[in-house]
């Protein structure tokens, strides 16, 4: 086993063991591991299976059900655009188009330089401030295509 | 009063007095404030106070509901009028601090409202258009106190309801909740007292009260707001529910990623343990109750009560078959009761003031208040709490200030993605569970998305259907396939390329979903289409035939579904490949 796989395993084990909530489940462990690692390597899923007594298959079953879990390393930065109804009637599609064009993407995905990972969000929960985006999980409301492009360029130029 | 509570009240009173003795500046942060840019304002404020060596308390509170005014800075300085400064930028902070905090002169040119300040040219907060008609019960502390601060909460009347409840017989307490007429605010509007009665009747020593904040409805943000602005009202309500039903555990269920509501609720629970309000022998009585937060991944269906229990157990949030019902067999197999956050948040004040006080507010069959979220094409966006009996028009035009550019309000999207479109000519309908459902309008969780005349009903319906399709959990096929069919047909409609018989096909698919689906997601999944068709059939027919008058741009929708496509090629369980689509042609039957 490689050193880095061992490192991931240790980090996952640590995250699973130090969850803030009393009730530990497969799902709570997946969330804790992904919070710590940024993604779910196979090592993390194995560790969760042994920590919770679930089968590895069951752990994968839960993990693949919730779209917030990812099984590959994330890009340096995350960008989300909300496509919910309020954002939709407030110009989200124009915003989306501008963001996708700027990133050179067709839909959800990562830029080839792996600087930015782009995701649609079903509702960021801040409808009064529509259209909403999140840059590295920090919310930004009342976004315009121009403002989004400025933020994206700043993000891509910065170091992770 | 219990001795323990008396001590708590004395401590709260002392600390409240100390707090009032020096400048107190409250800024709404949390999800709403963050999106509005409040975090740099708080940073600028702290830096400026440090620089000037001013002794002041800065509190990060939740939203007041006046979201259009955020970032909102609430400055209270002894001897000066309390002033709300709206849409504050970091650059304006120095001016506010220098003028109001240091010199004691409110910066009138930046003031949005005053609270009891009698400041010439500045309206009283209660006279702001958006505050009109408001009666705040569940939101009574919104933006007023530090979220989770037990002393501040108690100083404003908190835990009086719990203290009183603990001195009551549980049957009397259940009777009180029942006769208050409190009905579930999650959408089904079932009597809360009756629901609690089901759980109370179960003799199991371990029983659960689940508080549902899996608020997936786009356009509804009231549950998360209650948790980020005043989690203690939920906690107090949950403990009372636990005492009334003989439950042992409470769980607050929130979607992972909504950090402010999660962190504030978790911190508030910890403080309640520290103050003897949770755990063994609450307030020195014989009643014990434990509470914790449970997080779920992205899943709309997780808000369905049995799917929620699956998620609490750490599984996929797929609904269970019923019966057995949760009050008999719930989370971990123990009897459980699932309540919406808003519902529980009313309980402390109902117990404190009595059932009659609550029934005097609202209408005969819908007592109390409705918590509505105004967004979309409306001037004042945010969260309001108004008595039932008000009309939707009053909500939109008086509190919301109407369409900002004076355009016609074409429809409201209500009831979330399984709700529908309420046409503009029905705005005079009153807020009342029964009146609204008889008129085919769902109030649901309280999201009201105002849409003006430029909005295509067909386009927005596609968004709702795309949401329902993506969020179908995939367990039962009428929903899994039905939502996919509907989306395909709606895509054709939006492109003006419908096929003959598409409308009839949608009806048939919708019928199958309604009668065949396991849970409300599929049963109600045709609602957005049917309600839009009811009100805007001409527009649909024109659009479907390529004669639509409202431009519908290209639509970038989600690529993730729970058919496994999301993880195709990445996990051993992904058996359905990405790009796999269902297609059903109308079949001529003989």
Helix and strand topology:
The complex is a heterodimer of chains A (160) and B (590).
Chain A: H1 3-17, H2 26-37, H3 42-52, H4 56-65, E1 77-82, H5 85-89, H6 92-103, E2 109-110, E3 116-121, E4 133-135, E5 138-140, H7 145-157
Parallel strand pairs in A: 1-3
Antiparallel strand pairs in A: 1-4, 2-3, 4-5
Helix pairs in contact in A: 1-2, 1-3, 2-3, 3-4, 6-7
Chain B: H1 3-20, E1 24-28, H2 30-36, H3 38-51, E2 57-61, E3 73-76, E4 82-85, H4 90-102, E5 111-115, H5 150-155, H6 160-166, H7 170-179, H8 192-200, E6 208-213, H9 222-229, H10 231-245, E7 249-255, H11 259-274, E8 290-296, H12 305-312, E9 336-340, H13 341-353, H14 355-359, E10 369-376, E11 382-387, H15 392-399, E12 409-414, E13 420-423, H16 433-438, E14 447-452, H17 457-471, H18 477-494, H19 502-516, H20 520-523, H21 527-544
Parallel strand pairs in B: 1-2, 6-7, 6-9, 7-8, 10-14
Antiparallel strand pairs in B: 1-3, 3-4, 4-5, 10-11, 12-13, 12-14
Please give a structural write-up.
The complex is a heterodimer of chains A (160) and B (590). In chain A, strands 2-3-1-4-5 form a five-stranded mixed β-sheet, with helices on one face. Chain A is built from seven helices and five strands; from the N terminus they run H-H-H-H-E-H-H-E-E-E-E-H. With 160 residues, chain A is an alpha+beta fold. In chain A, strand 4 and strand 5 (138-140) form a beta hairpin. Chain A folds into two domains: 3-65; 77-156, Glutaredoxin, CATH 3.40.30.10. Helix content of chain A is 49%, strand content 12%. With 590 residues, chain B is α/β, with parallel strands linked by helices. In chain B, the strands form three sheets. In chain B, strands 2-1-3-4-5 form a five-stranded mixed β-sheet. A five-stranded mixed β-sheet of chain B has the order 11-10-14-12-13. In chain B, a hairpin with a 5-residue loop joins strand 10 and strand 11. In chain B, helix 9 (222-229) packs across helix 10. Chains A and B meet through helix 2, helix 4, helix 5, helix 6 and strand 5 of A and helix 2, strand 8, strand 10, strand 14 and helix 17 of B.
